[in-house]
Amino acid sequence: MSELEAFVADLLERRGAAVERVEPDRLEVLAPAALQRQLGWPEFAHLNFGMQRSEGTIAIGLEGDWLERFGALLADHGRWSERELRPSAPVPPPGDPERVLDRALDLPNAVWRLQGVSATWTRCLMLTFRFTAASDEKREGLISLGFNLATGAVINDILARLRPALAQPEWHVPEAATKRIAGAGWSEATLASRLHPVLDREVRESVEPFLRAMRRRLERDRNRVHAYHDELRRTSLKRLETLARAEGERAQADRRRESLRVEAIEREYRVKLDDLRRNYALRVSVEWVQALDLYVPVQRFDVLIRRRKGERLIQLDWHPLVKAAEPPLCEAGLGRDRVRLVCDDRLHLTDPSGQASCVSCGKPFCRACLTACPRCQRAS
Ligand SMILES: [Zn+2]
Ligand SMILES: [Zn+2]
Q1: Contact at 8 Å (CB) between 106 and 93?
Q2: 0.70 exceeded by pTM
Q3: What is the pLDDT of residues 239-287, one digit of tens each?
Q4: Ligand nearest the Cα atom of residue 349
Q5: What spacing in Å lies between the alpha carbon of 308 and ligand 2's midpoint?
Q6: Ligand 2 centre from 349 Cα, in Å?
Q7: Sign of the C-alpha dihedral computed for residues 208, 209, 211 and 215 taken in this order
Q8: Domain-by-domain residue ranges, the chain?
């Protein structure tokens, strides 16, 4: 059975249809009234997934609008799910946690001290988005982002490495005890403030190769349009130069005509440039597709951060399922690597740009503490 056939059979059964496989590539469907209405099918339908069409069967394939119609049947089902992942065999905690931390943390202006390591559960939110970039051509893609809701870390890489484990068919619904240990999730406001910069970066990076190719095409077209009109204009101007020396009524009429021609060429050039601008205007849309609440076991490192007279306790998780530590949380900036600067006032962990000097007056300030410069009020 093809993947499409299996998906359709499964979906129709879930929507109350009786589905029977009569021969390869053929399904016989007894559809309830609602399903008949939604799909425009008779009560008994013969679905044909093969290449050969045949009388009295409904041909189903990836072409046409079948995927959209089945998508409409799915509606919002499967948009949100939760799952608990357990290692198939016990994974011992890291033998030298100090070394793990040493590799995970780089704090140029603060010191850290490991306070303790404990086994616990955490809740990771995995979000999938679809982006569409359209100009003269169109590009679509999916972006997956992940957050550890307990430590605040962005864990896209850890989640990408968890994919093989996620492909396992057995689906453990999280146990109440696991959920209790993992703790509550984020408020909508917290999620929005953490999600937007990360999503923005991922979309920009995903669209970048498409954008580069588009810019090349635009430049090629612009050069072509310019070369064509430039040639026409030069020829006309040369003619005008010759006519400038001629006298008489005829020459005057020719001069006027040629001047009008130059104007017309310039006008047409501008119109062509406007066309290009419209044709290559880029529209990017991002749509949320799916959310998965993933409960995973972790070894939690309690780490004391010290900066001048202040101290703060943070958590950093080591994930037994992928045997790796997550990156430290980053409260301002993208935090691509492991370097974090610690602010004086509230000991925020930010990437270096999160503590940078104000572009206007030069005063350094923490972007997690303040959204605008404290001296000149200029927004970041
Ligand atoms: Zn701060
Ligand atoms: Zn300033």
Answers
A1: no
A2: yes
A3: 999 888 888 888 889 999 999 999 999 999 999 999 999 999 999 999 9
A4: 1
A5: 24
A6: 21
A7: positive
A8: 3-77, 207-284
